[in-house]
Amino acid sequence: MKDVKISPATIVMGLAAVLIFGLFGWLTFGPKPAPPPPPQLSAEGRQYLGSLALSNVHMQAAESYVNARVVEILGEITNNGDRTVKVAEVTCVFTDYSGQLVARERSFVVGGTAPGGSLKPHTTMSFRLPFDTIPEEWNQAMPTLIIAQIQFE
To answer: Residue 93 class from Cβ within 10 Å (0-12 exposed, 13-18 middle, 19+ buried)?
Structure first.
């Protein structure tokens, strides 16, 4: 049998390659930091809750262009108060047939990614909330909508 000699440079390059691949794998597939918590309803927003009303809320299902089912919640939000609302965000709580939580989604009804801009005092604005990732366990009933954030101009 022949005597195999490995140079120190080859050993160093091999160890460097293992270290680089290990670091790349850890950064790609390793632990991810927790996302920041969503904004909370301020005391000012809690006081203003009675001035915002959701009405004509209903659901409809549609097919997306990739043949996936999209559930849409449509409705209107009315600002009965005296302040202009820049952002209003709702939490939609989806449950199964036994009433257990299966999904909780936050969506903008005013501002954010919602079209239409701000909601002036004593005006009504339509909203549309599309969902395409609701679990199969969902009971197909209207989710509970809770106003989760209000920001003013």
So the answer is: middle
Model confidence over 77-122: pLDDT tens digits?
Answer: 999 999 999 999 999 999 999 889 998 999 999 987 777 788 999 9
Closest CA to 109 of 130, 93, 87, 124: 87
Q: Is residue 32 part of a domain?
A: no
Residue 22 counted as domain residue: no
Tally of domains in the chain: 1
Written as six digits, the tokens of 59 are 């659901």
In-domain check, residue 129 = yes
**φ and ψ at residue 6, rounded to 5 degrees:** -115, 125
Rounded-to-integer distance, Cα 109 and Cα 57, Å: 12
Which domain range does residue 122 map to? 43-152
Overall pTM surpassing 0.90 (yes/no): no
- Sheet (strand 52-63) strand order: 52-63, 69-79, 123-131
